[in-house]
Amino acid sequence: MPHRFPLAIRLLHWTMALLIIAMLFIGAAMVSTASPAYASLIALHRPLGIAILLLAALRLVLRFATGAPPLPADLPRVQQRAARGAHILLYLAMIGLPLIGWAMLSAGGYPVRLTAGFVLPPIVPRDALAYGLLRQTHGLIAFAFFALILGHLTVALIHRFVRRDGVLETMGFARAAALDPELAEPEEADEPEVEPAETPGP
Ligand code: HEM
Ligand code: HEM
């Protein structure tokens, strides 16, 4: 069994964590401003949100293809199940929230513009009621996502500083030797000294 997630998954995990946290703050700033900054914030919010959707899809494919390191065997079953459930919810939010954002703008009849010349097609028909519902759902799920991330962060820190069981390190970049000395590459066996060949005398 591997001792940590494959490099591609670890890189995706931390890149996406930064993007998602930035997006939560961009979203909150967007809805609490009436200044001209709104236009720049939403122009950033749409393409970043769609990038998160694509990265989440790629991450799920990689995750199914490569599996995950096992949780510590002494972790109670209920906590193993809770971890699994929380991870599934995190994946659902990473995929669902951007899709709801896209659907919300489609229902409102707003273009989902990613760059000046690139607009995504609508994914639901125009409907004012649906727009209102999706707008509320987007806000509620974003809030729940934030709470879930805080819980996830807390549990990760408990693993690191209370249980000290190596779970945080499965998502980290420390050298294998620092995780578990037994994983260290075996030291190169010293080459036997080769005696210089005797040069025949003149
Ligand atoms: C992981 C991705 C996303 C996150 C974390 C996120 C987060 C947020 C948050 C926190 C808000 C403020 C909600 C509130 O207080 O009611 C918001 C609003 C909004 N989001 Fe997202 N969002 C994401 C993806 C998207 C996408 C992909 C789109 C569209 C393509 C989108 C469009 C919007 C719009 C239009 C608003 C409302 C702006 C307003 O009413 O003034 N979001 N988002
Ligand atoms: C936006 C923020 C974050 C999201 C969406 C997120 C999402 C996820 C998901 C979905 C997994 C499950 C991986 C899998 O089995 O495929 C995971 C694992 C993990 N995450 Fe996060 N994460 C975030 C932030 C953080 C932070 C801030 C930390 C720690 C400081 C952290 C530490 C970990 C660790 C240690 C694992 C492996 C745990 C295990 O295998 O049970 N994550 N994360």
TrEMBL record:
| Cofactor(s) the protein needs | heme b
GO CC, alphabetical: plasma membrane
Q: Which membrane topology describes this protein? A: Multi-pass membrane protein
Question: Do the record's keywords include Cell membrane?
Answer: yes
Cytochrome b561 bacterial/Ni-hydrogenase domain segment(s): 4-171
Q: Which InterPro entries match?
A: Cyt_b561_bac/Ni-Hgenase, Cytochrome_b561_oxidase, Di-haem_cyt_TM
Q: Which Pfam families match?
A: Ni_hydr_CYTB (PF01292)
- Give an example GO biological process: respiratory electron transport chain
- Keyword terms, alphabetized: Cell membrane, Electron transport, Heme, Iron, Membrane, Metal-binding, Transmembrane, Transmembrane helix, Transport
Q: Which terms does the record give in the GO molecular function aspect?
A: electron transfer activity; heme binding; metal ion binding
Q: Where is this region: Disordered?
A: 180-202
Q: Which residues cross the membrane?
A: 12-31, 37-62, 83-105, 140-162
Compartment(s) where it occurs, according to its Swiss-Prot or TrEMBL record: Cell membrane
Give me the stretches of Acidic residues compositional bias.
182-196
Name the predominant localization.
Answer: membrane
Where on the tree of life does the source sit, at the highest rank? Bacteria
Protein family per UniProt? Belongs to the cytochrome b561 family.
State what protein this is by name.
Cytochrome b561
What is the scientific name of the source organism? Sphingopyxis italica
